[in-house]
Amino acid sequence: xxxxxxxxxxxxxxxxxxxxxxxxxxxxxxxxxxxxxxxxxxxxxxxxxxxxxxxxxxxxxxxxxxxxxxxxxxxxxxxxxxxxxxxxxxxxxxxxxxxxxxxxxxxxxxxxxxxxxxxxxxxxxxxxxxxxxxxxxxxxxxxxxxxxxxxxxxxxxxxxxxxxxxxxxxxxxxxxxxxxxxxxxxxxxxxxxxxxxxxxxxxxxxxxxxxxxxxxxxxxxxxxxxxxxxxxxxxxxxxxxxxxxxxxxxxxxxxx
Length: 256
Prior knowledge:
alpha+beta; Butyryl-CoA Dehydrogenase, subunit A, domain 3; elongated; disordered C terminus
């Protein structure tokens, strides 16, 4: 009788310990599940779509920054009185001077150009060494280049945040990504500074009449800035704990 009593008490003690350990494991598991908020497949698809839009903006920024067609400066095609004329086009890093034949220029065009005609001599600016060639733009073009590099850095950081968000399956990195992409609007400020440097160049010397116009590299950078702002706003919306359209159509979302 006593042996059966001790066996029964021992089994009850083991069952109590097992129940307590199971309860603790369940509490730990519950806490772990509450901390991790995995995104759904639909939200992951929306993030990928917004990321694709931002990548288009980054690509246009790199294209605009790497080319030397920010501004075209051209003298009148008959200014020299001979069969050739000169024009120049500049970017953030490089300037090119072209000597063109007047016969190759459109008769309806009064200035020398366009820049796509052959015959160029290009040199890189020495912004970060002696700064000798930077005097062309009153040493302000290097400020535009620094802002453009800072903007590109913010784009890279935003892309890294989105890649981490997609790989981990969490929304935590969407907010810093949206901040980085919206702050990359500094690339538009670099365009304004560059344009001001061109106007300062033209006003410094009136001995040679020059016709100036912003070229297609600036169009790429301007379009990239608008696209990146749009992409940053999309990431802000996706980072919210609820979708804005869920408040507008609550019954529809509950039905689904």
